[in-house]
Amino acid sequence: MQKNFDQRKGHLQSLMNELNNSIGINEKKYFHLQTIENLIFHFERVKTENDKNWIYETIVVYFKRCSEIMTSIDRNTSKDLFYEHVDKVTDYYHNNLGFVLLINRTIVYLIYFLILLLCYIFLNFYVVIIVASLLMFQTFRVFKKYKEKMVYGLFW
Fold it and tell me: Fewer Cβ close by (within 10 Å): the C or N end of the chain?
């Protein structure tokens, strides 16, 4: 059983390396390489054999689809590819393995700033301190998950 599992993870890693070597630097974000790499990295943590088979088959189909559209990839095709193949797997990892969505830092900091500003304007300074503490906790939590390779994202 362990040998079969190792072969699946190894096969996924070889498909990943093949895709990574066949695309240019500018196209890498469109193929969700970091997300797929994190999914493969934590493949052994998947609990049941049925789930492992489903994830393995889904990612293999994803790689086949990537090789078919490699020359005509754009932002919309990338989104469709993500939602068609990767999204269900990331939902499983999120719900069962504790993965978190990685959002662009600029957007996160802008949202944090707006939340703090609104709290300051409509509430009081003590609420701002409490909300800022919660936002810092969330930022550190996501950073910790990032270091553990437990994050995923659409264009990451």
Answer: N
The structure tokens listed for 148 are 């553990």
Look at 28 and 37; give whichever has higher pLDDT: 37
Please, which pLDDT band fits residue 155 given cuts at 50, 70 and 90? Answer: low
Give the span between the Cα atoms of 146 and 38, in whole angstroms. Answer: 10
User: What is the three-class DSSP state of 74?
Assistant: coil
The residue written with tokens 């300074």 in the block is 125
Distance CA 135, CA 142 (A): 11
Dist. CA 77–CA 75, nearest whole Å: 6
DSSP 82: I
Strand-strand pairing, 100-101 and 151-152: parallel
DSSP assigned state of 26:
G
Tokens, residue 55: 């994830």
Tokens 């959002």, residue located: 103
Helices (H), ranges, the chain: 2-22, 33-41, 49-68, 75-81, 87-97, 105-122, 125-147
CA distance 35 to 40: 9
Q: What are phi and psi of 151, to 5 degrees?
A: -130, 160
For the residues 11-36, what does the mean pLDDT come to? 89
